[in-house]
Amino acid sequence: MPPSAQPVAAPAGRKFPCDQCGARLDFDPSGTSLKCPYCGHSKHVYTDYTAVQERDFQAFIERGEPGPGTIPGRSEQVSCGGCGAVVLLEDHVATDKCPFCATHLESQPQAAEAMIEPESILPFAVDYRKAKDAFERWINDRWFAPSGLTQLSSLGQLNGVYVPFWSYDAMTYTRYTGQRGEERTAGVDPMHDDMSIVALAGMSHHNHRHMEWREVSGEVHHFFDDNLVCASLSIPLDKVMQLQPWDLENLVGFKPEYLSGFKTQRYAVPLRDGFDMAKILMEPTIKGMCLADIGGDVQILDTYNTKHERVTFKHALLPVWIASYRYFDKAYQIMVNARTGEVVGDRPWSVFKVGALSAFLLALAAIILFLSQ
Prior knowledge:
By secondary structure, the protein is of the alpha+beta class. 22% of the residues lie in helices and 32% in strands. It is built from seven helices and 15 strands.
């Protein structure tokens, strides 16, 4: 902008206006700043690590859900009629399609419901261009994917979305009962059997092993740190697991500036239900510790009872690029972890490509058969 020009006044109510041209500043994943998509002006966002606080789980349960607040700058929400996702809209910004299933959002926005506000966030680190490149590499590695899929990213179908997660910490105390099996070797005792040395030598191969069992009980302790549970029901569980790992050690204090230019989903899994899911995720570790504590050669775990104490939680928003599309009336999702660039998802099979390969193989088999005669 020429030095003599005056900054354009930002429209009333607009969040994060550009000081130079008045347009909305969007968060720039290439740096911790807000950047104007029109004039390029940027504004630094101060990173606050001290704001990431563990919250007392029991205190929140006793006071009752939902929480008393909403996310600043996201005062409206709209529900998707296709997948049920509740998308929190930026103030004064409309959206026409659900980022999770590409269904047209026909319902009118409503006032955002009260919720437990997020206190931590992993900002976008992979920008649109890098996500698009990762998306295209993923598609190109799938030979039988329909050719039209490569156009999805070019058509702007990649949506940047902050997905809600619960993270739980807990100290666990587990009492168990079980059985310890130890292998023993049974042989002939020459002090008690009236046999010659030759006879004993000839019977040595009859020595056999058997299992001796003993009932045992005990207690194991373990501290679980950052057990992550996806609070969205719009992403299949297997895809949620494939998006991991997340660099939760780099969580920063929540600021609405990080959301600018991206969609945000409201959590669909309540805090209490999320912890029930977290306990299920803890079980394999707890059972493994009990079996290790039983010892012996073979272990049987009969019963175990776990107490979860000093439970704390965080409501964290994690960044994902999502491409949702339909192919022959079936919905598909492709997701990019916006911290690592990892791509996961489903893709349909191209009937034409599979048919062409089948025809080629049949023709090749016919030629080989003809030449062999």
